[in-house]
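ok posting inputs for the S-adenosylmethionine job
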Amino acid sequence: MSEQTLLTAWQSARDRLKQAGVETPAFDARLMLEAGAGVSRMDILTDPHRALNAQQAQAVEKLVARREAREPAAYILGKKAFWKYELTVTPSVLTPRPETELLVEAALEQLRPDAPLKVLDLGVGSGAIAIALLLERRKISMVGVDKSAEALAIARFNAVALHVADRLELRESDWGADLPDAEFDLVVSNPPYVRHGAIDLLAPEIARHEPRLALDGGRDGLEAYRALLPQVRRLLKQGGGFLVEIGEGQAEAVWAHATAAGLSPEGVRNDLSGRARVVFGRNLGRAPG
Ligand SMILES: C[S@@+](CC[C@H](N)C(=O)[O-])C[C@H]1O[C@@H](n2cnc3c(N)ncnc32)[C@H](O)[C@@H]1O
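and the output
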């Protein structure tokens, strides 16, 4: 291999990733170059003709080949930015999505800064939502549940790294079925909501690499809501609030399932392109059905 510089290594990685169908080839090429060669963005910008030694070139090649095979950048790098911090991620957890920050934002509006409230996150995954809320609201305590023991281990690691582990109890549980009644002031959840049959049509990064348990919403994408909303009704105190993330076009159905579970949905939150992404409401003590 002829000698590579930061610039030529970046260009060649970018071209390969583009060819492989990666959505953001220039950006991802830079991430692989930075991680593989152990350089910063500033190094690439200010010293583009710096030569890579053989070890650096080999390390960059390995990372680019993985990304070329459509492994998600977050799994290759082992980290993902979410809200105002960085989380460790592995293939055992869903890579936290920017749209989930909308749920965090909406939840924060319901959590007064000094109130010592108790909050539940159903399907805690990497800990993204729970940890963001704990970092923003120093008086709350949270329970995070997940069916995946591997995901819980990552959530625990992140909670310790970000110094909120003392306020986050993590439990292996099926949508909180084993938790006591009327315990929580707020319940949040970003459940799996992709239609089973649509998963294989998603980008290879998702379809081939992310955990099915974090994606699969069953036949119509709504199975997790059917299972968890009755639990939300049972677990919330009277007057307590809930917020659930939803997939595109699911607002009406999730609203109806929440109502059937005895909850009182109150509104939806739209993303910047006007799509409803969160359904929120309250437990006003109505009977289910
Ligand atoms: C879409 S991911 C969300 C992860 C994380 N909260 C986030 O927003 O990035 C859904 C999570 O629900 C978990 N899950 C799936 N079925 C579950 C069940 N029956 N009980 C509890 N958790 C479940 C998955 O393991 C996964 O971590």
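notes: Residues 6-69 form one domain. The CA atoms of residues 77 and 146 lie 24 Å apart.
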